[in-house]
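During the no-cost extension, the postdoctoral fellow (Dr. R.K.) reprocessed legacy sequence entries with the updated structure-token encoder. One reprocessed record is reproduced below for audit purposes.
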Amino acid sequence: LVIARVDRLPDATRCVLQAAAVIGSAERRALLRRCVVALAGHDSGRAEVDAELERLCALGLLARAGAEMHAGYVFGDPLVRDVVYAGMSVVTRARLHEIVGHALERALRGDPSVTPDMLAVHFGRSTDAAKRLQWTRAAAARAEATYATTHAIDHLGHLLEIDDEPARADL
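Re-encoded structure tokens follow.
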């Protein structure tokens, strides 16, 4: 039922929903806008993305969250997010994760809520091996510095999975 509803969406609306699924939610409206513009390859514009978000709310696929000025959006049902995410091709998902990673990287300096962990997750699911290595190392170092040993070990384990022998040599 969810797949049928998503398949019937216009391309622009589906694009916004897919970007939100990769981000995990659409709480970060500005991030979502940047990702949709990058994915579409042209300037969809703030008003167009906001209109698609409102359409998704009217359809019950997303719900508004937060104060109006800083309103974000969340999936009304986590199952919708899971179905949308699983329904994307591997190539589309990897491309979106890379786009989200780059957008978060640009926001890193001015937004304390953006962490190396977030970047490691998105670049870890992208095809950008250099960024995957960079941010997974940074996330491991941050976890180690805060005595989050289990997380540090998890990140180091991901580093060992990276298929880049010279990069792994200095672990």
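Residues 90-107 form the longest helix (18 residues). The chain has a mean pLDDT of 81. The remaining legacy entries will be reprocessed before the final report is submitted.
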